[in-house]
Amino acid sequence: MSNDILQRLTDTLEARKNAAPESSYVAKLFSKGEDAILKKVGEEATEVILASKQGDKTHLVYEVADLWFHNMVLLVHHGLSAQDVLSELARREGLSGIAEKNSRAKE
To answer: What is the CATH number assigned to the segment(s) 2-105?
Structure first.
């Protein structure tokens, strides 16, 4: 089920990538370029931190959803998708965090 929503969202984002900016929020964000997308990711990350510190779980979920959404916009901007991230998480599954980090340091 979760992969279905991620795929549908990715498909929607892809469809809006080259749409007219006035047609949707996402199309407008794509038209502004990477810096605007990165600014939104940063803003949403800050809002996640604030929601967590406030201890409101419902608000935290809402803000994390916003952050995930804007991260997906960023991924699509770069020709990537949530599936690319899920594949990376699957690759890391069962690895020690220390071992995984050390393997990246050698690259």
So the answer is: 1.10.287.1080
